[in-house]
Design brief:
Layout lengths: L2 E6 L13 H4 L9 H8 L5 E6 L7 H4 L4 E4 L6 H13 L4 E3 L2 H5 L10 E4 L5 H11 L5 E3 L25 E3 L2 E2 L10 H5 L4 E2 L2 H13 L4 E4 L8 H18 L4 E6 L7 H9 L2 E9 L3 H6 L12 H11 L2 E8 L8 H12 L4 E5 L7 H8 L22 H15 L2 H14 L6 H9 L1 H25 L3 H17 L3 H27 L7
Parallel strand pairs: 1-2, 1-3, 3-4, 4-5, 5-6, 7-10, 10-11, 11-12, 12-13, 13-14
Antiparallel strand pairs: 8-9
Bound molecules: cobalamin and iron/sulfur cluster.
The site of cobalamin has 44 residues, from helix 2, strand 3, strand 4, helix 5 and helix 7.
Protein backbone atom coordinates (compact mmCIF):
# COMPACT_ATOMS: atom_id res chain seq x y z
CA UNK A 1 0.00 0.00 0.00
CA UNK A 2 1.40 3.38 -1.02
CA UNK A 3 0.64 6.93 0.03
CA UNK A 4 0.15 8.71 -3.31
CA UNK A 5 -0.23 12.45 -3.87
CA UNK A 6 -1.25 13.73 -7.33
CA UNK A 7 -0.31 17.33 -8.04
CA UNK A 8 -1.45 19.90 -10.59
CA UNK A 9 0.99 22.86 -10.59
CA UNK A 10 0.03 26.49 -10.55
CA UNK A 11 -0.83 27.93 -13.98
CA UNK A 12 0.76 31.04 -15.36
CA UNK A 13 -1.68 33.66 -16.59
CA UNK A 14 -3.30 32.54 -19.83
CA UNK A 15 -6.30 33.36 -21.97
CA UNK A 16 -8.53 30.60 -20.59
CA UNK A 17 -7.02 30.71 -17.11
CA UNK A 18 -9.33 33.70 -16.41
CA UNK A 19 -6.95 34.67 -13.60
CA UNK A 20 -8.02 38.33 -13.53
CA UNK A 21 -11.74 37.43 -13.44
CA UNK A 22 -11.61 34.62 -10.88
CA UNK A 23 -11.47 36.79 -7.75
CA UNK A 24 -14.52 38.69 -9.04
CA UNK A 25 -16.36 35.41 -9.42
CA UNK A 26 -15.30 34.37 -5.91
CA UNK A 27 -13.39 31.38 -7.32
CA UNK A 28 -9.75 30.31 -7.30
CA UNK A 29 -9.57 28.31 -10.53
CA UNK A 30 -11.51 27.86 -13.78
CA UNK A 31 -11.66 24.07 -14.19
CA UNK A 32 -10.29 21.16 -12.15
CA UNK A 33 -7.76 19.37 -14.34
CA UNK A 34 -9.64 16.21 -15.35
CA UNK A 35 -6.71 13.83 -15.01
CA UNK A 36 -6.34 14.18 -11.23
CA UNK A 37 -9.70 12.69 -10.14
CA UNK A 38 -9.44 10.19 -13.00
CA UNK A 39 -5.99 8.91 -11.96
CA UNK A 40 -7.33 8.61 -8.40
CA UNK A 41 -10.16 6.41 -9.72
CA UNK A 42 -7.66 4.32 -11.69
CA UNK A 43 -5.55 3.68 -8.59
CA UNK A 44 -6.12 0.11 -7.34
CA UNK A 45 -7.87 -0.24 -3.99
CA UNK A 46 -5.58 -0.31 -0.98
CA UNK A 47 -3.53 2.75 -1.88
CA UNK A 48 -4.25 6.11 -0.28
CA UNK A 49 -4.66 8.98 -2.76
CA UNK A 50 -4.68 12.73 -2.12
CA UNK A 51 -5.16 15.39 -4.79
CA UNK A 52 -3.36 18.74 -4.59
CA UNK A 53 -4.21 21.47 -7.08
CA UNK A 54 -1.83 24.33 -6.55
CA UNK A 55 -4.33 26.62 -8.22
CA UNK A 56 -6.63 26.32 -5.22
CA UNK A 57 -4.22 25.54 -2.36
CA UNK A 58 -0.52 25.97 -1.62
CA UNK A 59 1.77 22.99 -1.87
CA UNK A 60 3.04 21.87 1.52
CA UNK A 61 6.39 20.36 0.50
CA UNK A 62 7.03 18.88 3.95
CA UNK A 63 3.76 16.99 3.71
CA UNK A 64 4.48 15.96 0.13
CA UNK A 65 7.83 14.59 1.24
CA UNK A 66 5.99 12.01 3.37
CA UNK A 67 4.34 10.46 0.31
CA UNK A 68 5.65 7.24 -1.20
CA UNK A 69 4.85 8.45 -4.70
CA UNK A 70 4.12 11.95 -5.99
CA UNK A 71 2.50 12.14 -9.44
CA UNK A 72 2.80 15.42 -11.31
CA UNK A 73 0.79 16.51 -14.34
CA UNK A 74 1.04 19.63 -16.51
CA UNK A 75 0.60 21.43 -19.80
CA UNK A 76 3.13 23.49 -21.70
CA UNK A 77 2.19 26.64 -19.75
CA UNK A 78 2.98 24.87 -16.47
CA UNK A 79 6.38 23.51 -17.47
CA UNK A 80 8.46 26.05 -15.54
CA UNK A 81 6.51 25.49 -12.34
CA UNK A 82 6.68 21.71 -12.91
CA UNK A 83 10.47 21.99 -12.99
CA UNK A 84 10.52 24.00 -9.76
CA UNK A 85 8.33 21.46 -8.00
CA UNK A 86 10.43 18.55 -9.26
CA UNK A 87 13.64 20.25 -8.16
CA UNK A 88 12.24 20.86 -4.70
CA UNK A 89 11.03 17.27 -4.38
CA UNK A 90 14.26 15.81 -5.75
CA UNK A 91 16.21 17.73 -3.10
CA UNK A 92 14.02 16.04 -0.48
CA UNK A 93 14.56 12.60 -2.01
CA UNK A 94 10.89 12.12 -2.95
CA UNK A 95 9.93 9.54 -5.57
CA UNK A 96 8.19 11.50 -8.36
CA UNK A 97 6.54 10.48 -11.61
CA UNK A 98 5.36 12.83 -14.36
CA UNK A 99 2.60 12.54 -16.96
CA UNK A 100 0.22 14.72 -18.96
CA UNK A 101 0.18 16.88 -22.11
CA UNK A 102 3.65 18.45 -21.83
CA UNK A 103 5.86 15.47 -20.98
CA UNK A 104 3.91 13.42 -23.53
CA UNK A 105 5.30 15.61 -26.31
CA UNK A 106 8.64 16.68 -24.78
CA UNK A 107 9.82 13.50 -23.11
CA UNK A 108 13.32 14.64 -22.16
CA UNK A 109 12.23 17.93 -20.56
CA UNK A 110 12.48 16.63 -16.99
CA UNK A 111 15.50 14.36 -17.46
CA UNK A 112 17.30 13.86 -14.17
CA UNK A 113 14.35 15.18 -12.16
CA UNK A 114 11.69 12.47 -12.58
CA UNK A 115 11.80 8.82 -11.52
CA UNK A 116 9.35 7.74 -14.20
CA UNK A 117 7.44 9.39 -17.04
CA UNK A 118 4.12 8.55 -18.69
CA UNK A 119 3.64 9.29 -22.35
CA UNK A 120 0.02 9.74 -23.49
CA UNK A 121 -2.94 7.99 -21.92
CA UNK A 122 -2.40 6.11 -18.69
CA UNK A 123 -5.51 4.03 -18.01
CA UNK A 124 -3.47 0.82 -18.22
CA UNK A 125 0.06 2.08 -17.55
CA UNK A 126 -0.75 3.81 -14.22
CA UNK A 127 -2.06 0.63 -12.50
CA UNK A 128 0.70 -1.36 -14.23
CA UNK A 129 3.34 1.00 -12.85
CA UNK A 130 1.91 0.78 -9.33
CA UNK A 131 2.22 -3.02 -9.57
CA UNK A 132 5.82 -2.73 -10.82
CA UNK A 133 6.64 -0.20 -8.08
CA UNK A 134 5.31 -2.53 -5.38
CA UNK A 135 7.55 -5.28 -6.77
CA UNK A 136 10.50 -2.88 -6.94
CA UNK A 137 10.92 -3.22 -10.71
CA UNK A 138 9.38 -0.13 -12.23
CA UNK A 139 10.53 1.23 -15.61
CA UNK A 140 11.49 4.82 -16.42
CA UNK A 141 9.15 5.26 -19.40
CA UNK A 142 5.57 4.06 -19.71
CA UNK A 143 3.52 4.30 -22.89
CA UNK A 144 0.39 2.31 -23.65
CA UNK A 145 0.62 0.00 -26.64
CA UNK A 146 -3.16 0.24 -27.18
CA UNK A 147 -5.27 3.36 -26.88
CA UNK A 148 -7.64 3.42 -23.92
CA UNK A 149 -10.98 1.66 -24.33
CA UNK A 150 -13.20 4.52 -23.19
CA UNK A 151 -16.06 2.17 -22.32
CA UNK A 152 -13.90 0.84 -19.49
CA UNK A 153 -12.92 4.17 -17.91
CA UNK A 154 -14.13 4.41 -14.29
CA UNK A 155 -16.06 7.33 -12.77
CA UNK A 156 -13.62 10.04 -11.66
CA UNK A 157 -13.12 10.64 -7.92
CA UNK A 158 -14.78 14.07 -7.84
CA UNK A 159 -15.20 13.58 -4.09
CA UNK A 160 -11.44 14.15 -3.68
CA UNK A 161 -11.58 17.63 -5.25
CA UNK A 162 -12.24 20.88 -3.42
CA UNK A 163 -15.01 21.63 -5.91
CA UNK A 164 -16.18 24.83 -4.23
CA UNK A 165 -13.11 26.67 -5.59
CA UNK A 166 -13.81 26.04 -9.29
CA UNK A 167 -16.10 27.82 -11.77
CA UNK A 168 -16.74 24.66 -13.80
CA UNK A 169 -16.55 20.94 -13.21
CA UNK A 170 -14.93 18.79 -15.89
CA UNK A 171 -16.33 15.69 -17.54
CA UNK A 172 -15.16 13.77 -20.57
CA UNK A 173 -17.45 12.08 -23.13
CA UNK A 174 -14.84 11.11 -25.77
CA UNK A 175 -11.21 11.33 -26.90
CA UNK A 176 -9.64 11.77 -30.31
CA UNK A 177 -10.42 13.86 -33.38
CA UNK A 178 -10.67 12.68 -37.01
CA UNK A 179 -9.04 15.77 -38.54
CA UNK A 180 -5.38 16.41 -39.32
CA UNK A 181 -4.42 20.01 -38.55
CA UNK A 182 -0.68 20.33 -38.98
CA UNK A 183 -0.04 22.10 -35.65
CA UNK A 184 -2.16 19.80 -33.50
CA UNK A 185 -0.60 17.63 -30.81
CA UNK A 186 -3.96 16.30 -29.65
CA UNK A 187 -4.19 13.83 -32.53
CA UNK A 188 -0.55 12.85 -31.94
CA UNK A 189 -1.32 11.90 -28.34
CA UNK A 190 -4.94 10.74 -28.59
CA UNK A 191 -5.26 9.62 -32.21
CA UNK A 192 -7.69 10.32 -35.02
CA UNK A 193 -10.26 7.66 -34.17
CA UNK A 194 -12.82 9.14 -31.77
CA UNK A 195 -13.54 6.84 -28.83
CA UNK A 196 -16.58 7.42 -26.64
CA UNK A 197 -17.84 6.46 -23.21
CA UNK A 198 -21.26 4.86 -22.92
CA UNK A 199 -24.29 6.90 -21.85
CA UNK A 200 -24.40 4.96 -18.58
CA UNK A 201 -20.80 5.99 -17.79
CA UNK A 202 -21.43 9.64 -18.60
CA UNK A 203 -24.61 9.78 -16.53
CA UNK A 204 -22.84 8.10 -13.60
CA UNK A 205 -20.18 10.85 -13.84
CA UNK A 206 -22.83 13.55 -13.88
CA UNK A 207 -24.48 12.05 -10.82
CA UNK A 208 -21.11 11.94 -9.06
CA UNK A 209 -20.43 15.60 -9.93
CA UNK A 210 -23.86 16.60 -8.78
CA UNK A 211 -23.16 15.08 -5.38
CA UNK A 212 -20.25 17.52 -5.13
CA UNK A 213 -22.62 20.44 -5.82
CA UNK A 214 -21.37 21.14 -9.34
CA UNK A 215 -23.88 22.53 -11.83
CA UNK A 216 -21.73 23.86 -14.69
CA UNK A 217 -19.35 21.53 -16.48
CA UNK A 218 -16.81 21.76 -19.24
CA UNK A 219 -16.97 18.71 -21.50
CA UNK A 220 -13.22 18.38 -21.93
CA UNK A 221 -13.32 16.45 -25.22
CA UNK A 222 -10.76 17.13 -27.92
CA UNK A 223 -13.66 17.43 -30.36
CA UNK A 224 -17.08 16.43 -29.04
CA UNK A 225 -18.39 15.72 -32.54
CA UNK A 226 -15.50 13.60 -33.81
CA UNK A 227 -17.94 10.72 -34.27
CA UNK A 228 -21.25 12.44 -34.97
CA UNK A 229 -23.43 9.32 -35.08
CA UNK A 230 -22.15 8.01 -31.76
CA UNK A 231 -22.31 11.33 -29.92
CA UNK A 232 -25.92 11.84 -31.02
CA UNK A 233 -26.92 8.74 -29.03
CA UNK A 234 -25.02 10.01 -26.01
CA UNK A 235 -26.55 13.50 -26.26
CA UNK A 236 -30.04 12.09 -26.57
CA UNK A 237 -29.52 10.12 -23.35
CA UNK A 238 -28.05 13.13 -21.54
CA UNK A 239 -31.07 15.16 -22.73
CA UNK A 240 -33.48 12.60 -21.29
CA UNK A 241 -31.54 12.61 -18.01
CA UNK A 242 -31.65 16.42 -17.89
CA UNK A 243 -35.41 16.40 -18.48
CA UNK A 244 -35.91 13.79 -15.79
CA UNK A 245 -33.75 15.61 -13.26
CA UNK A 246 -34.82 19.20 -13.99
CA UNK A 247 -31.75 20.35 -15.95
CA UNK A 248 -29.18 20.23 -13.14
CA UNK A 249 -26.25 20.81 -15.55
CA UNK A 250 -25.22 23.41 -18.04
CA UNK A 251 -22.34 22.46 -20.34
CA UNK A 252 -19.63 24.14 -22.36
CA UNK A 253 -17.51 22.23 -24.86
CA UNK A 254 -15.22 22.17 -27.92
CA UNK A 255 -16.18 21.05 -31.44
CA UNK A 256 -15.12 21.47 -35.05
CA UNK A 257 -16.81 23.85 -37.50
CA UNK A 258 -18.45 21.04 -39.48
CA UNK A 259 -21.00 21.15 -36.64
CA UNK A 260 -22.76 23.80 -38.74
CA UNK A 261 -23.53 21.16 -41.37
CA UNK A 262 -25.64 19.05 -39.03
CA UNK A 263 -28.90 20.59 -37.76
CA UNK A 264 -29.86 17.48 -35.82
CA UNK A 265 -26.58 17.48 -33.95
CA UNK A 266 -26.88 21.15 -33.00
CA UNK A 267 -30.42 20.52 -31.81
CA UNK A 268 -29.28 17.56 -29.69
CA UNK A 269 -26.44 19.58 -28.16
CA UNK A 270 -28.89 22.28 -27.17
CA UNK A 271 -31.33 19.68 -25.84
CA UNK A 272 -28.54 18.29 -23.63
CA UNK A 273 -28.09 21.89 -22.38
CA UNK A 274 -24.75 22.69 -23.97
CA UNK A 275 -24.75 26.49 -23.92
CA UNK A 276 -21.54 27.38 -25.75
CA UNK A 277 -19.08 25.69 -28.02
CA UNK A 278 -15.44 26.56 -28.58
CA UNK A 279 -14.54 26.17 -32.27
CA UNK A 280 -11.03 26.24 -33.71
CA UNK A 281 -11.65 28.58 -36.65
CA UNK A 282 -8.00 29.71 -36.78
CA UNK A 283 -8.08 32.02 -39.78
CA UNK A 284 -10.22 33.88 -42.30
CA UNK A 285 -7.32 33.36 -44.72
CA UNK A 286 -8.23 30.31 -46.81
CA UNK A 287 -4.64 29.79 -48.00
CA UNK A 288 -3.54 29.52 -44.37
CA UNK A 289 -6.30 27.01 -43.61
CA UNK A 290 -5.17 24.88 -46.55
CA UNK A 291 -1.52 25.24 -45.54
CA UNK A 292 -2.33 23.90 -42.09
CA UNK A 293 -4.61 21.14 -43.47
CA UNK A 294 -7.65 22.52 -41.68
CA UNK A 295 -9.74 21.47 -44.66
CA UNK A 296 -12.95 21.20 -42.62
CA UNK A 297 -12.96 25.01 -42.36
CA UNK A 298 -12.32 25.69 -46.03
CA UNK A 299 -15.40 26.99 -47.89
CA UNK A 300 -18.08 24.37 -47.99
CA UNK A 301 -21.78 25.21 -48.02
CA UNK A 302 -21.20 28.87 -47.14
CA UNK A 303 -18.50 31.10 -45.74
CA UNK A 304 -17.08 30.64 -42.24
CA UNK A 305 -19.13 33.64 -41.14
CA UNK A 306 -22.33 32.00 -42.43
CA UNK A 307 -21.50 28.79 -40.62
CA UNK A 308 -20.72 30.53 -37.35
CA UNK A 309 -23.97 32.46 -37.53
CA UNK A 310 -25.85 29.26 -38.26
CA UNK A 311 -24.48 27.66 -35.08
CA UNK A 312 -25.35 30.78 -33.09
CA UNK A 313 -28.84 30.97 -34.58
CA UNK A 314 -29.45 27.39 -33.51
CA UNK A 315 -28.91 28.50 -29.89
CA UNK A 316 -25.25 27.66 -29.22
CA UNK A 317 -22.96 30.55 -28.34
CA UNK A 318 -19.71 30.30 -30.27
CA UNK A 319 -16.30 30.93 -28.72
CA UNK A 320 -13.31 30.52 -31.00
CA UNK A 321 -9.59 30.02 -31.40
CA UNK A 322 -7.72 32.09 -34.01
CA UNK A 323 -4.09 31.83 -35.09
CA UNK A 324 -1.78 34.35 -36.72
CA UNK A 325 1.64 33.68 -38.23
CA UNK A 326 0.93 30.97 -40.79
CA UNK A 327 3.31 30.96 -43.77
CA UNK A 328 0.51 32.50 -45.86
CA UNK A 329 -0.10 35.31 -43.38
CA UNK A 330 1.53 38.64 -44.06
CA UNK A 331 1.05 41.85 -42.09
CA UNK A 332 -2.50 42.24 -43.48
CA UNK A 333 -3.74 39.30 -41.43
CA UNK A 334 -4.26 41.30 -38.22
CA UNK A 335 -6.80 43.63 -39.81
CA UNK A 336 -8.44 40.69 -41.60
CA UNK A 337 -8.90 38.92 -38.28
CA UNK A 338 -10.55 41.98 -36.72
CA UNK A 339 -12.89 42.41 -39.72
CA UNK A 340 -13.77 38.74 -39.59
CA UNK A 341 -14.58 38.74 -35.88
CA UNK A 342 -16.72 41.85 -36.31
CA UNK A 343 -18.96 39.91 -38.69
CA UNK A 344 -19.38 36.94 -36.37
CA UNK A 345 -20.45 38.55 -33.05
CA UNK A 346 -18.04 36.19 -31.26
CA UNK A 347 -16.97 37.72 -27.94
CA UNK A 348 -14.51 35.17 -26.64
CA UNK A 349 -11.73 34.94 -29.19
CA UNK A 350 -8.61 33.12 -28.07
CA UNK A 351 -5.99 34.38 -30.46
CA UNK A 352 -2.52 32.94 -30.50
CA UNK A 353 0.61 33.03 -32.61
CA UNK A 354 1.29 29.84 -34.50
CA UNK A 355 3.42 27.65 -32.22
CA UNK A 356 5.06 24.34 -33.06
CA UNK A 357 4.48 21.74 -30.35
CA UNK A 358 7.04 18.90 -30.37
CA UNK A 359 6.00 15.70 -32.18
CA UNK A 360 3.55 17.53 -34.48
CA UNK A 361 4.01 17.54 -38.30
CA UNK A 362 4.44 21.33 -38.09
CA UNK A 363 7.34 20.93 -35.68
CA UNK A 364 9.02 18.38 -37.98
CA UNK A 365 8.53 20.57 -41.08
CA UNK A 366 9.86 23.74 -39.48
CA UNK A 367 12.81 21.86 -37.98
CA UNK A 368 13.70 20.70 -41.51
CA UNK A 369 13.34 24.23 -42.82
CA UNK A 370 15.52 25.65 -40.01
CA UNK A 371 12.64 27.84 -38.84
CA UNK A 372 12.37 26.79 -35.22
CA UNK A 373 13.65 28.87 -32.34
CA UNK A 374 14.85 26.19 -29.93
CA UNK A 375 15.26 28.46 -26.91
CA UNK A 376 12.98 27.41 -24.01
CA UNK A 377 12.51 31.07 -23.01
CA UNK A 378 10.33 32.41 -25.82
CA UNK A 379 10.89 36.15 -25.96
CA UNK A 380 8.78 36.38 -29.12
CA UNK A 381 6.06 34.24 -27.59
CA UNK A 382 6.43 31.48 -30.18
CA UNK A 383 9.11 29.10 -31.39
CA UNK A 384 8.01 29.56 -35.01
CA UNK A 385 10.06 31.89 -37.20
CA UNK A 386 7.43 33.30 -39.57
CA UNK A 387 7.83 33.28 -43.34
CA UNK A 388 5.93 36.32 -44.59
CA UNK A 389 6.71 38.87 -41.88
CA UNK A 390 9.43 39.55 -39.34
CA UNK A 391 9.28 38.28 -35.76
CA UNK A 392 8.82 41.84 -34.52
CA UNK A 393 5.93 42.38 -36.91
CA UNK A 394 4.26 39.18 -35.76
CA UNK A 395 4.65 39.98 -32.07
CA UNK A 396 3.50 43.59 -32.42
CA UNK A 397 0.65 42.69 -34.77
CA UNK A 398 -0.51 40.00 -32.38
CA UNK A 399 -0.46 42.34 -29.38
CA UNK A 400 -2.34 44.98 -31.40
CA UNK A 401 -4.90 42.40 -32.44
CA UNK A 402 -5.53 41.35 -28.82
CA UNK A 403 -5.91 44.99 -27.89
CA UNK A 404 -8.39 45.62 -30.70
CA UNK A 405 -10.46 42.54 -29.92
CA UNK A 406 -10.83 43.50 -26.26
CA UNK A 407 -11.34 47.19 -26.83
CA UNK A 408 -14.46 47.70 -24.65
CA UNK A 409 -16.55 49.26 -27.43
CA UNK A 410 -15.77 46.53 -29.94
CA UNK A 411 -16.36 43.76 -27.38
CA UNK A 412 -19.68 45.10 -26.10
CA UNK A 413 -20.90 45.90 -29.62
CA UNK A 414 -20.47 42.21 -30.41
CA UNK A 415 -22.29 41.28 -27.21
CA UNK A 416 -25.20 43.60 -27.98
CA UNK A 417 -25.42 42.51 -31.56
CA UNK A 418 -25.76 38.88 -30.46
CA UNK A 419 -27.90 39.30 -27.36
CA UNK A 420 -29.99 42.37 -28.21
CA UNK A 421 -30.24 42.64 -31.99
CA UNK A 422 -30.24 38.91 -32.71
CA UNK A 423 -31.93 38.04 -29.37
CA UNK A 424 -29.66 35.05 -28.80
CA UNK A 425 -31.35 32.47 -26.57
CA UNK A 426 -28.66 31.22 -24.14
CA UNK A 427 -29.63 27.78 -22.69
CA UNK A 428 -32.68 27.43 -24.96
CA UNK A 429 -33.87 23.98 -23.91
CA UNK A 430 -33.49 24.68 -20.19
CA UNK A 431 -35.45 27.89 -20.73
CA UNK A 432 -38.21 25.90 -22.45
CA UNK A 433 -38.25 23.43 -19.56
CA UNK A 434 -38.50 26.26 -17.06
CA UNK A 435 -41.45 27.80 -18.90
CA UNK A 436 -43.33 24.56 -18.25
CA UNK A 437 -42.33 24.53 -14.58
CA UNK A 438 -43.28 27.99 -13.27
CA UNK A 439 -42.15 27.40 -9.69
CA UNK A 440 -38.73 26.23 -10.68
CA UNK A 441 -38.57 29.09 -13.14
CA UNK A 442 -39.31 31.64 -10.45
CA UNK A 443 -36.68 30.08 -8.19
CA UNK A 444 -34.09 30.13 -11.01
CA UNK A 445 -34.94 33.73 -11.85
CA UNK A 446 -34.51 34.80 -8.26
CA UNK A 447 -31.18 33.01 -8.09
CA UNK A 448 -29.95 34.47 -11.40
CA UNK A 449 -31.13 37.94 -10.46
CA UNK A 450 -29.36 37.75 -7.11
CA UNK A 451 -26.17 36.40 -8.68
CA UNK A 452 -26.26 39.06 -11.43
CA UNK A 453 -26.62 41.83 -8.88
CA UNK A 454 -23.98 40.39 -6.54
CA UNK A 455 -21.43 40.00 -9.33
CA UNK A 456 -22.20 43.44 -10.72
CA UNK A 457 -21.56 44.99 -7.29
CA UNK A 458 -18.30 43.06 -7.02
CA UNK A 459 -17.24 44.43 -10.41
CA UNK A 460 -18.08 47.96 -9.31
CA UNK A 461 -16.07 47.48 -6.12
CA UNK A 462 -13.05 45.68 -7.51
CA UNK A 463 -12.38 46.90 -11.04
CA UNK A 464 -9.84 49.67 -10.41
CA UNK A 465 -10.28 51.54 -13.72
CA UNK A 466 -13.18 54.01 -13.35
CA UNK A 467 -13.68 54.36 -17.12
CA UNK A 468 -14.04 50.62 -17.44
CA UNK A 469 -16.52 50.53 -14.57
CA UNK A 470 -18.50 53.18 -16.39
CA UNK A 471 -18.54 51.09 -19.57
CA UNK A 472 -19.80 48.07 -17.60
CA UNK A 473 -22.52 50.19 -15.97
CA UNK A 474 -23.64 51.69 -19.25
CA UNK A 475 -23.68 48.42 -21.14
CA UNK A 476 -25.46 46.54 -18.35
CA UNK A 477 -28.09 49.26 -18.15
CA UNK A 478 -28.70 48.96 -21.89
CA UNK A 479 -28.99 45.20 -21.52
CA UNK A 480 -31.36 45.63 -18.59
CA UNK A 481 -33.63 47.82 -20.65
CA UNK A 482 -33.43 45.63 -23.77
CA UNK A 483 -33.73 42.19 -22.14
CA UNK A 484 -34.74 42.38 -18.49
CA UNK A 485 -34.43 38.63 -18.06
CA UNK A 486 -32.42 37.69 -14.93
CA UNK A 487 -30.78 34.72 -16.75
CA UNK A 488 -29.57 36.94 -19.61
CA UNK A 489 -28.43 39.63 -17.18
CA UNK A 490 -26.40 37.11 -15.21
CA UNK A 491 -24.70 35.85 -18.39
CA UNK A 492 -23.92 39.43 -19.38
CA UNK A 493 -22.34 40.34 -16.03
CA UNK A 494 -20.20 37.19 -16.38
CA UNK A 495 -19.25 38.53 -19.84
CA UNK A 496 -18.12 41.77 -18.14
CA UNK A 497 -15.92 39.77 -15.76
CA UNK A 498 -14.46 37.76 -18.66
CA UNK A 499 -13.90 40.97 -20.55
CA UNK A 500 -11.99 42.30 -17.55
CA UNK A 501 -9.60 39.32 -17.73
CA UNK A 502 -9.00 39.55 -21.47
CA UNK A 503 -8.77 43.33 -21.40
CA UNK A 504 -6.25 43.26 -18.55
CA UNK A 505 -4.18 40.62 -20.32
CA UNK A 506 -4.15 42.59 -23.58
CA UNK A 507 -3.25 45.88 -21.81
CA UNK A 508 -0.42 44.24 -19.87
CA UNK A 509 0.99 42.83 -23.08
CA UNK A 510 0.79 46.09 -24.97
CA UNK A 511 2.14 48.24 -22.15
CA UNK A 512 5.11 45.99 -21.29
CA UNK A 513 5.61 44.41 -24.72
CA UNK A 514 5.66 41.08 -22.90
CA UNK A 515 3.85 38.09 -24.21
CA UNK A 516 1.57 36.10 -21.98
CA UNK A 517 1.01 32.43 -22.76
CA UNK A 518 -1.05 32.41 -25.87
CA UNK A 519 -0.64 28.92 -27.28
C1 LIG B 1 -10.35 20.66 -21.95
C2 LIG B 1 -9.09 21.43 -22.26
C3 LIG B 1 -8.98 22.69 -21.72
C4 LIG B 1 -10.01 23.29 -20.76
C5 LIG B 1 -9.74 22.78 -19.34
C6 LIG B 1 -8.28 22.96 -18.92
C7 LIG B 1 -7.92 22.41 -17.57
N1 LIG B 1 -7.37 23.26 -16.72
O1 LIG B 1 -8.11 21.24 -17.33
C8 LIG B 1 -9.77 24.80 -20.96
C9 LIG B 1 -10.63 25.30 -22.11
C10 LIG B 1 -10.03 25.68 -19.76
C11 LIG B 1 -8.32 24.77 -21.42
C12 LIG B 1 -7.48 25.81 -21.25
C13 LIG B 1 -6.18 25.82 -21.70
N2 LIG B 1 -5.57 24.87 -22.45
CO1 LIG B 1 -6.34 23.25 -22.83
N3 LIG B 1 -7.01 21.51 -23.37
C14 LIG B 1 -8.08 20.86 -23.07
C15 LIG B 1 -8.11 19.50 -23.78
C16 LIG B 1 -9.00 19.60 -25.01
C17 LIG B 1 -8.54 18.32 -22.91
C18 LIG B 1 -7.79 18.21 -21.58
C19 LIG B 1 -8.41 17.15 -20.72
O2 LIG B 1 -8.99 17.44 -19.69
N4 LIG B 1 -8.33 15.88 -21.12
C20 LIG B 1 -8.85 14.76 -20.35
C21 LIG B 1 -7.79 14.22 -19.36
C22 LIG B 1 -8.34 13.03 -18.62
O3 LIG B 1 -6.70 13.82 -20.15
P1 LIG B 1 -5.17 14.18 -19.74
O4 LIG B 1 -5.10 15.37 -18.91
O5 LIG B 1 -4.37 14.13 -20.97
O6 LIG B 1 -4.80 12.94 -18.78
C23 LIG B 1 -4.55 11.64 -19.25
C24 LIG B 1 -3.08 11.38 -19.62
O7 LIG B 1 -2.43 12.50 -20.15
C25 LIG B 1 -2.46 10.90 -18.35
N5 LIG B 1 -1.90 11.86 -17.40
C26 LIG B 1 -2.07 13.18 -17.29
N6 LIG B 1 -1.37 13.66 -16.27
C27 LIG B 1 -0.75 12.63 -15.66
C28 LIG B 1 0.06 12.58 -14.55
C29 LIG B 1 0.56 11.35 -14.12
C30 LIG B 1 1.41 11.27 -12.93
C31 LIG B 1 0.22 10.18 -14.87
C32 LIG B 1 0.70 8.85 -14.41
C33 LIG B 1 -0.58 10.24 -15.99
C34 LIG B 1 -1.07 11.47 -16.38
O8 LIG B 1 -3.50 10.24 -17.67
C35 LIG B 1 -4.79 10.72 -18.08
C36 LIG B 1 -5.64 9.52 -18.42
O9 LIG B 1 -5.19 8.87 -19.58
C37 LIG B 1 -6.60 19.36 -24.14
C38 LIG B 1 -6.32 18.48 -25.33
C39 LIG B 1 -5.86 17.12 -24.84
N7 LIG B 1 -6.54 16.10 -25.20
O10 LIG B 1 -4.91 17.06 -24.08
C40 LIG B 1 -6.16 20.81 -24.29
C41 LIG B 1 -4.71 21.16 -23.97
C42 LIG B 1 -4.26 20.36 -22.76
N8 LIG B 1 -4.77 22.57 -23.63
C43 LIG B 1 -3.71 23.23 -24.00
C44 LIG B 1 -3.49 24.61 -23.71
C45 LIG B 1 -2.25 25.22 -24.30
C46 LIG B 1 -4.38 25.36 -22.92
C47 LIG B 1 -4.24 26.83 -22.52
C48 LIG B 1 -2.85 27.24 -22.06
C49 LIG B 1 -4.72 27.70 -23.69
C50 LIG B 1 -4.66 29.20 -23.39
N9 LIG B 1 -3.73 29.91 -24.01
O11 LIG B 1 -5.44 29.73 -22.65
C51 LIG B 1 -5.28 26.96 -21.38
C52 LIG B 1 -4.73 26.78 -19.95
C53 LIG B 1 -5.62 27.52 -19.02
C54 LIG B 1 -5.90 26.94 -17.68
N10 LIG B 1 -5.41 27.62 -16.66
O12 LIG B 1 -6.60 25.95 -17.56
C55 LIG B 1 -2.76 22.34 -24.77
C56 LIG B 1 -1.49 21.95 -24.02
C57 LIG B 1 -0.32 21.70 -24.94
C58 LIG B 1 0.69 20.77 -24.30
N11 LIG B 1 1.06 19.71 -25.02
O13 LIG B 1 1.11 20.99 -23.19
C59 LIG B 1 -3.69 21.14 -25.14
C60 LIG B 1 -3.00 19.80 -25.31
C61 LIG B 1 -4.44 21.52 -26.45
C62 LIG B 1 -3.57 22.06 -27.53
N12 LIG B 1 -2.72 21.35 -28.17
O14 LIG B 1 -3.68 23.21 -27.78
N13 LIG B 1 -7.98 23.57 -21.97
S1 LIG C 1 -9.89 19.99 -35.33
FE1 LIG C 1 -8.87 20.57 -33.41
S2 LIG C 1 -8.46 18.66 -32.32
FE2 LIG C 1 -8.97 18.13 -34.45
S3 LIG C 1 -6.98 17.96 -35.48
FE3 LIG C 1 -7.70 20.07 -35.78
S4 LIG C 1 -6.84 21.27 -34.06
FE4 LIG C 1 -6.65 19.09 -33.54
Amino acid sequence: MAKIVLVNPRFEVSYWGLEHALPLLGKKCNVPTACLPLLAALTPAGHEVTLVDENVEDIDFDKLAQADIVGLTGMIVQRARMREILTELKARGVFVVVGGPWVSVQEDYFDGLADAIFVGEAETTWPQFLGDWAKGCHQYRYEQTERTDMTQVPVSRYDLLKTEHYVFGSVQFSRGCPFQCEFCDIIVTFGRKPRLKTSAQVIAELEAMRKENLSIAFIVDDNLIGNKAAVKVLLQDVHEWQEREGYPFQFFTEASLNLAEDDELMELMIAANIAAVFIGIESPNEDSLKETKKYQNVKKGGTIVDRVRKVQDSGLEVWCGMIVGFDNDDARIFKEQVDFIAQTDIMHVMVGMLGAIPKTPLHARLMNEGRLDLDDEQTYGTNVIPLSMSRDELRDGFIGLMRDLYDPDFYFDRLESLYLTREFDFGRSRNAYMREHPWRRRKAQLLDGGRALGLFLLLMKNVPDSQLRQVYRRRMWKMFRGRPDPGVLFICVVKCAMHYHHYTMSREMSEHRTLINTL
